[in-house]
Amino acid sequence: MDGQKDASFPRLPFPPISRSHILHCSYHSWHPKYRSITPKARLIPLTAPFLSYLRSDGIILPPEANDNEYVSADTDSGIFSSASTSTGSLSDTDSESSYTDPSLSWPEIHLRIKSTIEELGGNVVPKLNWSAPKDATWINATNNMECRSPNDVYLLLKSSDFITHDLEQAFDSCSSPHSPSPLANNTTDPVETKPDDGNSSIPYHLILRKTIPALATSLEFRCFVRARTLLCLCQRDLNHYDFLADSVGSLRVQIQRFFDENLKNSFEDADFIFDVYVPPPHQRVWLIDINPWAPRTDPLLFSWLEILTMRGPGEEHRERLEGDGDGDGAGDEGDGEESVDDGRSSDDEDAEEEIFEPEFRLVGRNDPEAYSFNTPQYSAHKMPKDVVDASGDGEAGLREFMGRWREIVREQEEEAGRGSG
């Protein structure tokens, strides 16, 4: 049966995805309209030199204030190194001897990031137009996305495949990925200008969101909207929580009301996905993000085939009416008697039939997603275990690991030299 079902859908039945839809889901596009219902955040327009820095190979970080040490990466191996520019501890053959502060090419961005972090209480979570560097948390000393300095931000952004996707493949799923977009062409924000690049007209922004204290990831939900109808929703955190089963009814009501009042008729497109956070005591809903209705967005506890073929309220109503009409005519008399006894008008019955409740899917106690021994989230984007373990010890761990690695490389080079001699 599975083979027959797959044969019916050789490709996911997605409608054409336009550049304008992708841009409507960019944080800089929707945030001004929904600012009052989102956590506190600041948007920093990005310049071409900074975008070139994000795209460049290797990781070189600006020196910290009042600190002579910096962290860099060899562009071939990508392994981090740390050295002092003042003690002369590096040999003349080391590539770090030619170190240049990369922020000299974008000083205004560097200062803006630093001041924004201070304004937002000294702790922020970064993202670009669409993606956050969730896949790079292994490189952060705190093993999460919280940043307390500009270098924390740069390290996460440059280590993330998700950020690279935003920079290089933003329109890959579009029907005409390189067609012009009115939204992009009408903006006056700084943009990256690269010839023959479909992403050249994107007004890139760095978003710094104030860290939410005691964020309960169990209360983050992803909501799928089709034809301006909240079709279904599910957990974002793929762990089982006993208390959620008793809260489904109230959470569904709160999120449905939030959607009806704030997003249903105001967002530019009829199909989209939004993420919300409903902190205790579940009396307020916060909009966290808006995502494209596209294969690139993770459906989490659903599959895209499920969502695309799921019956909405109008379709469910039509199917029921068609089913009621299939008969041999023997029930016509009975139907007439029911209409007299019931005392309800046909309009009332139609209204009842059209009531639609979105499916709310949770991780069950026995679901595979509920167990931590499964493959960790974003594991495909992570580094070797030795590097991850070293990053868990913070900067000192990375220094020690780098020292060991450099020693191994040096010994291998010496052995190779003796062998060739």
What secondary-structure arrangement, pairings included, does this model have?
Elements: H1 2-8, H2 19-24, H3 27-34, E1 41-45, H4 48-55, E2 69-73, E3 80-84, H5 107-119, E4 124-127, H6 150-158, H7 161-168, H8 182-185, E5 205-210, E6 220-226, E7 229-235, H9 242-262, E8 272-277, E9 286-291, H10 304-309, H11 313-325, H12 332-342, H13 346-353, E10 359-361, H14 385-392, H15 394-420
Parallel strand pairs: 7-10
Antiparallel strand pairs: 1-5, 2-3, 4-5, 6-7, 6-8, 8-9
Description of the molecule:
The protein has 421 residues and is of the alpha+beta class. The chain has helices at 2-8, 19-24, 27-34, 48-55, 107-119, 150-158, 161-168, 182-185, 242-262, 304-309, 313-325, 332-342, 346-353, 385-392, 394-420, and strands spanning 41-45, 69-73, 80-84, 124-127, 205-210, 220-226, 229-235, 272-277, 286-291, 359-361. The protein contains 15 helices and ten strands. The chain has a five-stranded mixed beta sheet. A three-stranded antiparallel beta sheet has the order 1-5-4, covered by helices on one side. Helix 14 runs antiparallel to helix 15 (394-420). The longest helix has 27 residues, at 394-420. The model is unreliable at 1-7, 66-97, 177-197 and 317-342 (pLDDT under 50).
Please describe the structure with a list of short key phrases separated by commas or semicolons.
globular, 15 helices, alpha+beta, disordered N terminus, 10 strands, 421 residues, 3-stranded antiparallel sheet, 5-stranded mixed sheet
Provide a count of the helices. Answer: 15
Largest sheet: 5 strands, mixed
**Separation of termini?**
66 Å
Q: Which series of helices and strands comes N to C?
A: HHHEHEEHEHHHEEEHEEHHHHEHH
Shape: globular
State the helical fraction.
25-40%
Report low-confidence residues grouped into runs of 5 or more.
1-7, 66-97, 177-197, 317-342
> What's the alpha carbon Rg, rounded to whole Å?
27 Å
